[in-house]
Amino acid sequence: MRYNGPCHRFLRHPGQRLGRRGRLSSVAQGAAAARSICNPSRRTGGVVCFNFDNIRYLTGTHIGEWARDKFMRYALCGTEGPALLWDPAAPAKRVSSAWIAEHVAAPISTMQGGLPPWLNVQDDFARQIKKTLVDLGIEGAPVGIDIMELPMLRALEAAGIEVVDGQQAMLDCARSKNAGRDRVVEAGRRNGRRNICRRCTRHPPRHARK
Fold it and tell me: Is residue 45 one of the residues assigned to a domain?
């Protein structure tokens, strides 16, 4: 399948149907909500996400379900600026997802055991994250992680990075971002139930008719 072939125009990126403005707004809201968890009360300077849903929430990008269990794609959101994405299809992302074109790079991952430990890929990954934290000015703060392979987690700790729970923090910020949407959905459900009750009153089922 050609990546941006005309027959797959609806699969170029998840936000295409929303339009450029809608997608940029959604990504900005997700990043802003994620930055809200990087505060002194949570003692978190940033969050690194390997979960595909969290990555899409932070960056507005997706690569396909085939890569969900490969652990070769991750994003980092700090206290300031846009989220950073490491993606195996970085050149394609720069074309299809212009809003993150300047903040995407190639990942370093053991691919859930696909690469043997003696290659020390996990150490290269830790150095990559450490350098990014230094560049962002948050190298001294704990980093939240949603899910991660144990060798890569141990490599982060060996590099002097304090790792804390990031999954619950991501759930909390998603809940706060979606509070307004949930109210709208619930109102729609109530209206739908009312309409169904009205129809049943006007046109009861045959077995209920006398």
Answer: yes
- Inter-residue contact 80 to 38 (CB < 8 Å): no
* Structural domains of the chain, count: 1
How deeply is 155 buried, as exposed, middle or buried, from its count of CB atoms within 10 A (0-12, 13-18, 19+)? buried
- What gap in Å lies between CA 124 and CA 158, rounded to an integer? 12
Using alpha carbons, select from 181, 174, 151 the residue that is nearest to residue 47: 174
Distance, CA of 203 to CA of 210 (rounded, Å): 12
Q: Is residue 186 part of a domain?
A: no
Residue 193 maps to a domain: no
Strand order in the sheet with 143-145: 104-105, 84-86, 74-77, 46-49, 143-145, 163-165
Q: Is 73 in contact with 50 (CB distance < 8 Å)?
A: yes
Q: Is residue 191 part of a domain?
A: no
Choose between 104 and 14: higher pLDDT: 104
Give the domain CATH number at 12: 3.40.350.10
For the stretch 166-208, pLDDT in tens is: 888 888 777 766 666 666 666 666 776 666 555 555 555 555 5
Full domain range(s) for residue 160:
6-177
User: Which amino acid appears at position 43 of this protein?
Assistant: R
Cα separation, 97 vs 63, in Å, equals: 11
